[in-house]
Amino acid sequence: MDSRDIKEEPSIPKDNKYLESIYEMQKQLLDSYISIEGLPKYPLNINTKTNQLILKDFTSRVIEELAEAYESLLLVEELTITKQKIEETENLINTNTDVEIIYPTKILQFSKDCYEKADYINSLEEQNDIKAGLIISNNLHAQLLADWANKFASIQINNNINEYIAQNPVTIEYSETNITNKSVKATIKTNQIVKNTYLIKTEALHLNTQ
Fold it and tell me: Whole-prediction pTM value?
């Protein structure tokens, strides 16, 4: 059974009796198993060998279903982490358009291609070890590429900032450099067009001496 095969929307239980509704649906499912597999009618006598084998078989099925569900959950979690990493790197690149980030962008595109392939394979209905292996390998490749692109882009952005600072040194000039109780103008200058002047107001210090 695949949950993706269920198209009908579940109805809201009357008087919000969700637990009772779950038991009723499970009873209907059990009745279906009885008719399909020719099982004895419940309740089963657990003291007979035949019924013990039936219960053991169904217990094994439940454990197998839980294991498969947990495995699928881990795959979806890893895909989600990869998607977040790709989006984070994409935002980093898009918010620094003044920097020429060529190779990290190409690497990120390879990452997105691998992620989309893994996501597509995960949407297929077939369930087998080959499918799981393809999802894991493509997703891992996507994660590593996205992480590489992120670090590569960060290095380029930082280098660009350091280069800008080196090419555009900042100096501060004061209208008065001696000790004074008058207001002093501080002018911040760079070799760019921007030049800011600030007025620094000071007050005279009155020292009381004995």
Answer: 0.59
Bond before 13 cis per omega within 30 degrees: no
CA 26 to chain centre: 35
Positions of E strands within 106-183 = 171-174
Task: Output the DSSP codes for 77-114.
Answer: HHHHHHHHHHHHHHHHHHTTTTS---HHHHHHHHHHHH
Which of helix, strand or coil describes residue 41? coil
Per-residue burial over 108-121, b = 16 or more CB atoms within 10 Å of its CB, e = otherwise: beebbebbebbbeb
pLDDT tens per residue, range 108-159 = 999 999 999 999 998 887 777 788 889 999 999 999 999 999 999 999 998 8
Residue whose C-alpha is closest to residue 79's, from 128, 109, 123: 123
Strands (E), 39-192: 171-174, 184-189
Residue whose C-alpha is closest to residue 74's, from 138, 135, 148: 135
> How does pLDDT run across 65-109, given as a tens digit for each residue?
898 888 888 888 999 999 999 999 999 999 998 888 999 999 999
Place of tokens 């087998």: 128
Distance, in Å, from the CA atom of 22 to the CA atom of 11, rounded to the nearest integer, reads 12
